[in-house]
Amino acid sequence: MAKRQVRIGMVGYKFMGKAHSHAYRDLPFYFDNDVQPVMQAIAGRDEAGVKAAADKMGWASYETDWRRLVERDDIDLIDIGSPNNTHAEIAIAAAQAGKHIICEKPLALNADEARRMLEAVDKAGVVHMICHNYRFVPAIRYAKQLIDSGQLGKIYHMRAHYLQDWIMDPDFPLVWRLRKDICGSGTHGDLMAHSIDLARYLTGEITEVSGMMNTFIKQRPLGEMSGGLSAKASGEQVGEVDVDDAVAFICRFDNEAMGVFEATRFGKGNRNTNQFEINGSKGSVRWSMEHMNDLQLYLDTDKEGSQGFRTISCTETIHPYAGAYWPAGHIIGYEHTFINIAHELMQGIAENRSPSPNFEDGYRNQLVLEAVETSSKEKQWVQIPQF
Ligand code: SOE
Questions:
Q1: Using a 6 Å cutoff on CB, does residue 270 contact ligand 1?
Q2: What is the DSSP string of 317-378?
Q3: Distance linking the first and last C-alpha atoms of the chain
Q4: Is-contact 266 191, C-beta < 8 A?
Q5: What is the mean pLDDT of residues 132-159?
Q6: 127, exposed or middle or buried, with CB in 10 Å at 0-12, 13-18, 19+?
Q7: Backbone phi, then psi, for 6, in 5-degree steps?
Q8: H/E element holding 91?
Q9: Which residue minimizes the CA distance to atom 9 of ligand 1?
Q10: Cis geometry, peptide bond prior to residue 357 (ω within 30 degrees of 0)
Q11: DSSP letter assigned to residue 174
Q12: In this predicted structure, what is the pLDDT of residue 228?
């Protein structure tokens, strides 16, 4: 019997558009879902650009206004990969039109917008997800299993950092990713949001934070992104940078664990260093994106004399998602994290439930982001509302 189709309308076709398109195309290669994704239409404002992207990435049609995607009755799911200031308007309109939604992170410009988005999807009863792709790395999923099954014991510490260096040149332009009106915050919402998501996933809810934020380069030439994380200046004019370049915070979790977090785009030499360590009463785990298939594990139960961190290649069938790809030892990469999300999303739609992380996670994440900003401004600890 033919499978029910999920006809996708995607907004945005650059970096994340490429990652999501690839995921929908490759999904049926690896996973046998109960529904079938169909790359129905893609939207972008520049007609030549969106047409070329549709042709290259395999979308059946294109639109130059996202509103058309929401209006079309041959679209079931809206995928939002456009800049952050567009997320709330598109998601709320999509929910009101009864479309399922997946949205890039951070969910919104601020917690208030994120709450309104959550209310809209709840009211409409549509399936929703936020695209925190690192949760879908087999090694991280396996770490979660170790923690949940008590093998690490009581969790005392989580420390994480997410370091990049692509805006260190003072001539790197003031692109949308560096403008508060378009992205809400800088490194904080872009990178720290991922670490906060992993913290909430692996360790627990964050209850209070003490943070600091800094902007090292205060003015930059105006300009635009030109693909990936490259950009070009548009002339001589300069503008004020009103988002953070770097952020750090300490926190407490609801289970008494302590957290230490840092994110920066000024970590010279670090192209995409996303790492964490979690310490429990019986064991510890360490993970690093640049070796994403590996989990470093220390267990007290190892024989005395042979104790130490060992490297587990999370590529065996027993490791989450890994069995869908290749035989043991054959590694997967960044793009596969998006295939794993697409898999969860399709199953969520088939079963009419919103898999984690969803808009509630996005809202909770945004509350933490906002608390860190407030704490940095007011130079004091800030509590995160619990519900
Ligand atoms: C740029 O900093 C970026 O692409 C982020 O936007 C992503 O969320 C992160 O996963 C990789 O770096």
A1: no
A2: TTSTTGGGSSSTT----HHHHHHHHHHHHHHHHHHT--PSS-HHHHHHHHHHHHHHHHHHHH
A3: 44
A4: no
A5: 98
A6: buried
A7: -115, 105
A8: helix 87-96
A9: 191
A10: yes
A11: B
A12: 84
Measured in Å, residue 229 CA sits from the centre of ligand 1 at 9
Q: Which atom of ligand 1 is nearest to the CA of 166?
A: 2
Our measurement of the distance from residue 47's CA atom to the centroid of its chain's CA atoms, rounded to an integer in Å, reads 28
Our mutation pick for probing the ligand 1 site, out of 191, 288, 292, counting the most ligand atoms within 8 A of Cβ, is 191
Partners of 260 in beta bridges: 159, 250
From residue 87, give the alpha-carbon distance in Å to each of 29, 80, 112: 30, 7, 13
Distance CA(201)–CA(188), nearest Å, equals 18
Instruction: For CA atoms 90, 95, 97, 99, give the dihedral sign.
Output: positive
| Predicted-complex ipTM score | 0.97
- Delineate the domains of the chain, giving CATH numbers in brackets: 4-133 (3.40.50.720), 138-291+293-332+365-378 (3.30.360.10)
Share of the chain above pLDDT 90, in %: 97
Structure tokens that stand for 318 in this block: 């027993």
What's the pLDDT score for residue 343?
A: 98
Q: Which of 312, 322, 350, 365 is nearest to 130 (CA)?
A: 365
Answer whether the bond into residue 106 is a cis peptide, omega within 30°.
Answer: yes
Strand partners, 35: 4
164 CB near ligand 1 (under 6 Å): yes
Q: What is the per-residue pLDDT across 302-322, written as a single tens digit (0 to 9) for each?
A: 999 999 999 999 999 999 999
Cα 258 to Cα 236: distance, rounded to the nearest angstrom: 47
Of 338, 314, 206, 228, nearest in space to 272 by CA? 228
Length of the chain: 387
* 192 CB-near residues (< 8 Å, 6+ apart): 162, 247, 261, 263, 369, 372
* Ligand 1 pocket member 272 (CB < 6 A): yes
